[in-house]
User: What shape does this take?
Amino acid sequence: MSFHRFTVIAVFSLVVLLTWTTTAASRNRYGAISYSRSTGRSGAAAGFSTQAAANQAAANSCYNKGGGRDCYQFIIHFNNTCAALAVGRNGASAYGYGQNRSTAEQQALSKCYGCGIVAWGCSK
Assistant: This one.
């Protein structure tokens, strides 16, 4: 194999690898759900390029809706999927994940008897 042909193949392979890596990384979308146990307020955020940004946006949303400082302590993380949070009057809570809102809500409710959905988000 000639040096020129080897170089062309190596460069082509590198371009393919970089394109695939960039495309795969750009598909990641993050979301978060935040909940204030002290006030019962919640916030959700989805579609962010980093988990940290999604967490901050969800906590800020919760806090801006009248949630307490504990909005910044109770956070559910998710990426490239949907999530839902169910909470009951007795303080019980559960979360679920799924490929769509309905599945995530059903999963959360199946783990929390007598609860209702307080927040959901999809980061796909």
About this structure: Confidence is low (pLDDT under 50) at residues 3-23. Strands lie at 30-35, 42-48, 75-79, 82-87, 93-98, 116-122.
